[in-house]
Amino acid sequence: MSGFGPGDLFLADCPARLAVELIADKWTMVVLAGLSEGPVRHGELIKLIGGISRKMLTQTLRRLETHGLIRRHAYAEVPPRVEYELTPLGATLTEPIQALTEWARAHGDAVLDALDAHAEPVAAAE
User: Fold this and answer.
1) Cα–Cα distances in Å, from 14 out to 5, 20, 64, 68, 113?
2) In Å, what is the CA distance from 51 to each residue of 71, 105, 115?
3) 85 partner at 20 to 30 Å CA-CA among 9, 28, 40, 121?
4) How far, in Å, CA of 28 to CA of 25, rounded?
């Protein structure tokens, strides 16, 4: 038992809050989804994800590795080859990521419609 009560998720040092902050990062879910089919190299992830810089991908991969969600495997080859894959802990996020992806597909248009409905008209400000 962790010693945290039901309302303690909002405490800064709550393990659940730390985990939520990790997976709520802009690139974390996309990177984990990219690794869900098996080991992938850095350059392949760049192409698969799109829109992420090499630096940001490297930072995200390092953070996920540090938190035990992915594993980095460097092969002793010339030229060097490095692959990333989900750990068993990281693999537990595959199903929730798929569920969120399906929700986004089903409701993405509604979210955009709501955004458009609340956008301030540019002409009215002039």
Assistant:
1) 10, 10, 18, 17, 36
2) 23, 19, 22
3) 9
4) 5
CA–CA distance, 126 with 97 (Å, rounded to integer) = 43
Per residue in 58-97, pLDDT tens?
999 999 999 999 999 999 988 889 999 999 999 999 999 9
Question: Do 32 and 69 touch, CB atoms closer than 8 A?
Answer: yes
Helices vs strands, H then E, count in the chain: 7, 3
pTM for the model: 0.79
Burial 5-35 (b: 16+ CB within 10 A, else e): eeeeeeeeebeeeeeeeebeeebbbbbbbbb
- Residue identified by tokens 């301030």 is 120
| Structure tokens, 87 | 């750990």
Quote the pLDDT of residue 57. Answer: 97
